[in-house]
Amino acid sequence: MSGTPDPTAPFWYARPAARAWTCAPVSPGVSRFHAGLPGYAPTPLTELPALAARLGVGRLFVKDESSRLGLPAFKALGATWAVHRILAGRPAGTRLRLVAATDGNHGRAVARTARLGGHHAEIHVPRGLHPSAVAAIAAEGARVEQVDGDYDTAVRQAADAARADGAVLVQDSAWPGYEEIPGWIVEGYATLFAEIDDQLAAAGAPAPDLVAVPVGVGSLAQAAVTHYRSQGRAHAPALLSVEPVTAACVLAGLVAGERLSVPTALTTMAGLNCGTPSALAWPYLRDGLDAAVAVTDAQSADAARELAALGVGSGPCGAAALGGVRAALEGPGAAARRAALDLDPSATLVLLSTEGPAANPHHQENPS
Fold first, then answer.
1. Which of 199, 261, 248, 245 is nearest to 221 (CA)?
2. Closest CA to 85 of 192, 193, 181, 219
3. Using one digit for the tens of pLDDT, what is the confidence trace for 29-64?
4. 358 lies in a domain?
5. Which of 185, 215, 244 is the last residue of a domain?
6. Contact 4/17 with Cβ under 8 angstroms?
7. Based on the domain organization, do 199 and 180 belong to the same domain?
8. Sign of CA dihedral 100, 101, 105, 111
9. What is the arithmetic mean of pLDDT over 97-104?
10. DSSP state, 27?
11. Is 16 exposed, middle or buried (0-12, 13-18, 19+ CB in 10 A)?
12. Are residues 214 and 166 both part of a single domain?
């Protein structure tokens, strides 16, 4: 694998050859399943012409996940599909005990799915998660276990608890021996990208030239790669992953050429505060991402304010997509980064705003 870190932007890495890589598509049955759920509706794809003009591109759209199946983030797509698949192999009327670790949104989605299905949920949360995020999970009827450690520690503790109790671990990160359920969660996210295709067509817009995806463990980015690198797809856009500088495990792995873990620090981008990419996602990210960028809390906050001024409410994780695009397309070295992404003044950009402003309140302490 070859790629180029940019010395003028140390939190940037590009590998344009990724556009030639392909993979098998996801079954269309995922979108049909979600369409049959109570309260389902496609989330908005909002065009922001003023932002497109500022960034020097043709059209720019934000996929607004601030309200998805009654929750303020996209995670319900993966949780509902995974639990549906788990139940498919069990007798009718089965009641499950579901266990998960979370920095907020995934755990709340698992807890909501459990409550609506008559199941029990136990959610493990890392040290420092904001009390209102913990309370939102508990309000779904879940038992919340607070962990004296970071997100990766919470994942390990949740896995141990599920094994000890004979429960079902519903985690959006995979490791050797635990891959089937994370794979179903990734499949669930396919609905988001199918909606984007339909919404761009309805807006008279071409297929995107760049899609920016906030990344924690990488499952949503894996879904993006799977969708846009599917065999037979006519147009392959550039795919840009965006992480906090305090938890840039995908960027570090791309630079090193191997999946690895990095130490993390507190960040307002709580849902992206993950130190190890999913083992299932990593091959897709390694081979299918064009570029990776890491952003600071200040860059995310600036992006959130800009989106709010344009009518799109976004939390720190969701606004990271715009923060990453701004870091790529503005400042010293921007011309080279724009060329690596193959963007010209007519390009169409799609940014994934993965959560609303109240979805995942930041940690109690200021990030270091």
1. 248
2. 181
3. 999 999 999 999 999 999 999 999 999 999 999 999
4. no
5. 185
6. no
7. no
8. positive
9. 94
10. P
11. middle
12. no
Residues 339, 340, 342, 345, CA torsion sign: negative
The contacts of residue 90 (CB under 8 Å, 6+ apart) are none
| Residues listed for the chain | 368
Q: Within this chain, do residues 230 and 319 fall inside the same structural domain, yes or no?
A: yes
User: Is beta strand 59-64 parallel, antiparallel or unpaired with respect to 348-353?
Assistant: parallel
Domain that holds residue 177: 92-185
CB atoms within 10 A of CB 54: 14
Same domain (yes/no): 178, 195: no
Largest CA distance in the chain: 60
Cβ atoms 21, 282 nearer than 8 A? no
Domain annotation covers residue 220? yes
Residue 4 CB coordination number (10 Å): 14
User: In which order are the strands placed within the sheet that holds 168-169?
Assistant: 143-146, 120-125, 97-101, 168-169
Does 55 lie in the same domain as 41?
A: yes
The count of structural domains within the chain is 2
Q: Are residues 204 and 278 in the same domain?
A: yes
What residues have CB less than 8 Å from 185, skipping those under 6 apart?
Answer: 78, 79, 81, 82, 170, 171, 172, 219
Among 69-73, 108-112, 196-200, 270-274, the range scoring the smallest mean pLDDT is 270-274
* H/E run at residue 49: helix 49-55
Do 60 and 106 belong together in one domain? no
CA angle 186–276–238, rounded 5-degree value = 55
CATH number at residue 338: 3.40.50.1100
Does one domain contain both 202 and 176? no
Backbone angles phi, psi at 66, to 5 degrees: -75, -10
